[in-house]
Automatic annotation (TrEMBL), chains A, B:
Record flagged with keyword DNA-binding: yes
Pfam family, one: LacI
Annotated keywords: DNA-binding, Transcription, Transcription regulation
Annotated source species: Zobellia barbeyronii
Matches recorded under PROSITE patterns: HTH_LACI_2
Protein name, entry field: LacI family DNA-binding transcriptional regulator
Domain HTH lacI-type: 7-61
SUPFAM superfamilies to which the protein is assigned, alphabetical: lambda repressor-like DNA-binding domains (SSF47413), Periplasmic binding protein-like I (SSF53822)
InterPro entries assigned to the protein according to its UniProt record, in alphabetical order: HTH_LacI, LacI/GalR-like_sensor, Lambda_DNA-bd_dom_sf, Peripla_BP_I
Amino acid sequence: MSNKKKTTLKDIANILEISTAAVSKALQDDSRISSKTKEAVKKVAKDLNYQPNHLASALRKGKSNLVGVIVPRTNSNFFSSVVQNMEEVLNKAGYNIIITQSNESYKKECDSIDTLLFTQVDGIIASMANETTDLDYYEKIKSRGIPLILFDRGENDLNVDYIGIDDYASSHMIVEHLVEQGCKRIAHIGGYQRTRIFNNRIRGYKDAIEKHGLPLDSELLLESSLTQEDGRIKMEQLLALKTRPDAVYIAGDYAALGALQVLKENAIDVPNEIALVGFGNEPFTAMVSPPITSIEQHSAEIGRLAAQTFLEHVSSPDIKQSLNKKILDAELIVRDSSNKKAFLN
Amino acid sequence: MSNKKKTTLKDIANILEISTAAVSKALQDDSRISSKTKEAVKKVAKDLNYQPNHLASALRKGKSNLVGVIVPRTNSNFFSSVVQNMEEVLNKAGYNIIITQSNESYKKECDSIDTLLFTQVDGIIASMANETTDLDYYEKIKSRGIPLILFDRGENDLNVDYIGIDDYASSHMIVEHLVEQGCKRIAHIGGYQRTRIFNNRIRGYKDAIEKHGLPLDSELLLESSLTQEDGRIKMEQLLALKTRPDAVYIAGDYAALGALQVLKENAIDVPNEIALVGFGNEPFTAMVSPPITSIEQHSAEIGRLAAQTFLEHVSSPDIKQSLNKKILDAELIVRDSSNKKAFLN
DNA sequence: TATATTTGTTTAATCGATTAAGCAAAGATA
DNA sequence: TATCTTTGCTTAATCGATTAAACAAATATA
């Protein structure tokens, strides 16, 4: 039953006995086409349910109106929210997006880049996988001359636009908050040092600790993949120390969750015995007990800004790929896992 | 610095002073091209970093090798896992996927369908938005003659391939489990009746309740959007009843979470006073306290099967869009929220 | 030797939309 | 009336890859 063959400009042209050029222009409301013809064309187009062939027009125009998005994973609220807001802005500007996930794998990320370039996207907005250290594939995007915008997980060396929060300052906020709570031995389970954002958090942690004259003990600073499981492992390590910390700041919410589970299993009073702070403000931080203090990264804003940055690039193609950083302020959401005062009242 | 203009077949042809046709065939290992020419072509292609223009080849071949995927949202573990496994299977078969999210909105879903058709995808794999009742847009996909496969949220009337779990039987498993726990007044916060899967869960609930000779009280059966917030609201309604239920089965984990929060706020003993069961086995069900009993839907398997079903369609185009249902068995994951026995020991 | 087959390649059409250039007819200007 | 503009459309080239058809040269077959 299905009308297999799609309607093309030619079909419309044949019916009206005019050229395909006229039809094309009529549909684009070209000023050189009479309104009579335009109406006729539009009517027939509607009747035949004409849908332009995107491949043909993209090929001809050298522009696909597609933007590729690479995220480490979609099942995190942060990335999902970034993407959603990005999409909203881009849709309004006539762009559609293609989402791909790297699953934190370097290989998968390279494949994603290939797929997107292959699909002839007009630009790529990406957040890098944890594993990624080799930037060749990103250089490939740059060398193709299409806009590349990074967010959250970026990389200075690439020298491209970047949107993210101030990780260094966020660490300061967290340490300051914990100090206010009376904590004196603050541990940090950080991400990979090689990743820019995690490195900034580590630097922020160290500087803030020193600033407050607290001990900067190397056994209190651990490097982690920040998965839930690794959060468990690293927390167990901290509990095994001769002198346990009285606060733990963890650079990711999932790892913080694993850590919290270990604390509960060990019947440790959170926050009074050990206070806990995560990072990312994933919804579950508010759901577990005790709810976990965390950092809100303004995902919606990051998504919108990334999209706008892309649009700026395409609207003025002369702008070179330049290091144009947009750094947002983060927000500390204090919850019971670090709020000793709430328990004193 | 960037080498703006991409290498085309023509560039290679010019260098080797052969026709583009020869180049094209050489790259495809056509048997009629001498191995000498093939080698030369491949060498030059590599040197010039040739990347075929997908738009051109898709236009010519009438096949984009792209599969569109529509999910209500990506930030649920279920959908994210489905998509990931789907992608794996499709990638191996030379297909790439384009993910779009409907955010449970009918309008957004229609836009997604338009985007995907516009991008000339070779097929669409979708799970319908909660809001969707009008099937016109899905009929549009069918009428275009491209394969459509639904999973999880499907619709009988569309008469297309469907992959999902046995919702009716799942409800039976849940009710049976609660009866075993000694529950006698089991409530159900279900999804929208109009949605096939939720309707099946409701039917399963009713039938199982009757089978065990329990009261099928209308005030114990509520219809919900199954958001976390609505879970709270509906649980409050149940608590306000003259005779409270001693078990609540909720057709979605997010709503179950909201309900659990209300129960905890009201200092109700879960599971002894009221037992709780969710649906979907989202990771947080294991994380909260008490952990929530839930149904595992085998997302990985669903993803793989959906992909395979698509591949079957394209490999034998004569197969009409037919009602080919693949129903998987679900699995009940019993956790503390409904496990009274664990507390007796 | 004459004919058939295989091999290796080129020519040219094609996918569908876009657009520069061309051109005829109508209208405006002098 | 003669010339210039504007209007409204057509022609034809183009984007880049693919492929049917054609063809020459080499090889096989009779």
